[in-house]
Amino acid sequence: MELESKHPGPAVSTHDLHGQQLRIPNLRPAFADWHQGINPFYDQAKRAVDARLEGLIADERALAKAKAADIGLFACGWFPDAPYTILETVAFYCVWLFLWDDAIDGASASSVGLVAEEYCQQSVAFVRHHLGLDEPGTLEPKAPTKVCESFAEVGARVGERCGLARRKQLFGHLKEYMEGCVTEYRWRLSGGIPSVEQFYSWRLRTSSVDVMLDLSRILNEISLPGDILESGELAAMGLSVNNLLILINELFSLKKELRDGAYGNLIPITMRWSGLDLDVPEILLTMADSWDFTYPSPLAGYENARPLPEERAEDGKSFRNPQTGVLSSAYEKFIDPLDNGRRGGFDVHIYYFQNNADQSRYARELWERIRREFPELRIYTFWDRPIGPHPVAMFEVNLFTPAQFGAFIPWLAIWRGPLSVLVHPNTTEQDVPEAERELRNHTQRAIWMGERLPLDVGMFRALIRAQRATGTAHSANAST
């Protein structure tokens, strides 16, 4: 596999980040209602894990490091109410999962490609066999390492608790995990700086979320109908969990990775790909936070108006408003600085996961329905891949009048089905460079229907930097 970096900027160095601070907010409130606790069999589980580690790791420093990670505690927090047999299975599964890629870590730069590929292929064959997926009578493949060999017991335990379909699903995700580890190490040794998209191409697999969710469903005996397991909603939920855990991990591992000289962390990758140079004032200036913008008072022009009445309307709850006999001009045309011209006041991007057959079909049918029911709207290409700042496939609709907005958006609230929708304004502020307008319109001013998806707004930030450096105004038209 050829690795070609799509990264436009210079490599990240420790010097770039030295002395700077990264503040991590308190995450406890977000998990306040999460079921928490430590399994009462922790001491027994820890002894079992330590004994297994001693049988798998010969190097004393590596063994001490593995014990300090306290995989037993991790298992006890994950399954706080499980009986010991289940808890031990979880712990041994985690030992295998956490130690499996160490063999790739220890390979030399000159041999890692061959070693990693062979190790991965042999491990995949061994795991498949011990999940009972080989033809009857197939000889046991040779395990490339003692760690890999330990999966024989784990596979047998897991296989006793689930049928063929679940074992196939678990194997598929374990195979993706192992292949993703190989891709990640190839990138690390290549010296290239991946784009955010390239980073996620392996990180979504090596995060272990899918293989952990599979094990949770198997050992907790959670049986879901096939249409739910294969639904776009569950896929979107899993992706959100995966992204959250990746972000948390990247935050906490950044300092260690920079100290070790490993620059595959999402934070510096995102900053370089977004055109940021890691200078703190510049970061604060260009990141799309709601407090980075100015907000004129909504009451400008009403400073001398009479006080509003306190009288309630007939329902006894809402207020009676002063009547002027004139409707707001916003009913007739979009207010400034919304574009009332050729581009239209709002773009509507309707997203679908292109690898999900149900979503692809629904999105195609919705695209056709909109063209038939709203022929006066401007409707663009039905893309089958991500384009511009959009993370997945989509199609776009333009709205030119408040009447169109008022008719189409409520209609879409019902008919968008399982799909996420971004509604963003197009504005014409003459005193604001186009790239800065696009960044704000796609972030702070954006309206989302359904699950919010992360946009790759790096193209806007790169243009902002270019404009500030040259004093020019570049176009930001790329299916935005």
From TrEMBL:
User: InterPro entries from the xrefs?
Assistant: DOPA-like_sf, DOPA_dioxygen, Isoprenoid_synthase_dom_sf
User: From which source organism is this entry?
Assistant: Achaetomium macrosporum
One Pfam family matching this protein: Terpene_syn_C_2
Q: Which domain of life is it from?
A: Eukaryota
Q: Which SUPFAM superfamilies match?
A: DOPA-like, Terpenoid synthases
The name on file for this protein is Uncharacterized protein
